[in-house]
Design goal:
This protein has 48 residues and is mainly alpha-helical. The protein has one domain (3-47). Helix content is 79%, strand content 0%. The protein has helices spanning 3-16, 21-25, 29-47. Helix 1 crosses helix 3 (29-47). It starts with a helix and ends with a helix.
């Protein structure tokens, strides 16, 4: 994952969920992607 992709995912996560900034700094790309996909799916279901 590129730095820009990670940055975009983190910004999205913060926009839709309360999340600890400190904790996210130590997460792997895979963990960030999992949280992003979960948040995105939840957001999509809520908007339907």
């Amino acid at each position: 994952m590129s730095r820009q992709e990670r940055k975009n995912m983190v910004e999205f996560i913060f926009s839709v969920k309360e999340f600890d900034h400190q904790a996210i700094m130590y997460m792997t790309d895979e963990e960030i992607e999992h949280i992003y996909l979960t948040a995105y799916q939840t957001q999509t279901l809520l908007s339907e």
